[in-house]
Specification:
Helices cover 45% and strands 10% of the residues. By secondary structure, the chain is an alpha/beta fold. The protein has a single domain (52-259), classed as Glutaredoxin (3-Layer(aba) Sandwich), CATH 3.40.30.10. The strands form three sheets. A four-stranded mixed sheet has the order 2-1-6-7, with helices on both faces. Strands 3-4 form a two-stranded antiparallel sheet. A hairpin with a 2-residue loop joins strand 6 and strand 7. The longest helix has 28 residues, at 2-29.
């Protein structure tokens, strides 16, 4: 009888020990491993570095695209160090690698290459260069000189194929995402659906920053405007340099590429 009781108690102890061990293991595995990377931020939230990611897709000779670039640059000046801006070009690559088609012709592709190289060589000042160049009908080299950029390095970048690598990437990306309208913009991965004017865009960026928004967000500068009051100069400059457009029907494989206000969603400055 005594042996039976001992055996029963041994079995009970063994079961209790097993359950305790299993419970301990489960608690340990419920915690993330110390070496794991944090989950990426959800779309529509500020980047983990406290900045807001902006993707702006344009045709470099499209007046409405130029206006959008001016809006983003204006807000970037008001909110220094807040925006991560990526400029993408809307165009198509033909079956021949390195040969591109764009709505405003070969001159637009040439300007795409220059702006792409400025982005590679001077990434922090690419948008500043583009908006500077947009405001004058003079050659892009004048803007480069005014900003103390190395013109020959930019030309070398265009010649050696680095620019074409960017354009190939953008042609594939815009086709895959069906980005046909200049301008098209994303804020932290989410489509920007408001009017592209400096006040609306400023408020969107401030909202995306959340509790990291600087004090200026509480009192928007008077220079910011909800109306297209300062776009005439940019549009005029763009039209002055604009070359005859190629027929839209010759743009392959997308046939609905447009340089437009996109149903009044995109007003400027």
């Amino acid at each position: 009888m005594a042996r039976r009781n001992v055996t029963i108690w041994l079995v009970i102890y063994a079961v209790l020990a097993l359950l305790a061990a299993c419970g301990g293991q489960g608690a340990a595995t419920s915690e993330p491993a110390s070496g794991e990377s944090p989950a990426p931020p959800k779309a529509g939230t500020a980047a983990t570095d406290g900045k807001v990611n902006i993707e702006l897709y344009v045709m470099s000779e499209c007046p409405f695209g130029k206006g959008a670039e001016g809006v983003v640059q204006k807000v970037a000046v008001v909110l220094p160090g807040v925006l991560n801006v990526e400029i993408g070009f809307i165009l198509n690559e033909t079956e021949t690698p390195g040969v591109f088609e764009s709505l405003h012709g070969e001159e637009e592709v040439a300007l795409d290459r220059v702006q792409a190289c400025v982005g590679l060589l001077y990434p922090e000042r690419q948008l500043e260069f583009i908006t500077h160049d947009n405001q004058t009908p003079e050659p892009w080299a004048d803007a480069a000189k005014a900003m103390s950029f190395d013109e020959e390095e930019i030309r070398k970048c265009v010649r050696d194929g680095r620019a074409d690598e960017v354009l190939t990437r953008d042609a594939r990306r815009t086709e895959a995402q069906t980005i046909n309208a200049s301008p098209t913009m994303f804020v932290n991965g989410e489509p920007y659906e408001k009017s592209i004017n400096s006040l609306d865009f400023f408020e969107t960026v401030c909202a995306a920053l959340g509790d990291k928004a600087p004090a200026v967000c509480a009192s928007p500068p008077a220079a910011l405007s909800p109306a297209p009051t300062a776009s005439a100069r940019d549009v005029a400059a763009g039209e002055a340099r604009r070359r005859p457009s190629i027929p839209t029907s010759s743009i392959k494989p997308r046939s609905r590429i447009s340089c437009s206000t996109r149903a009044t969603l995109f007003r400027t400055i």
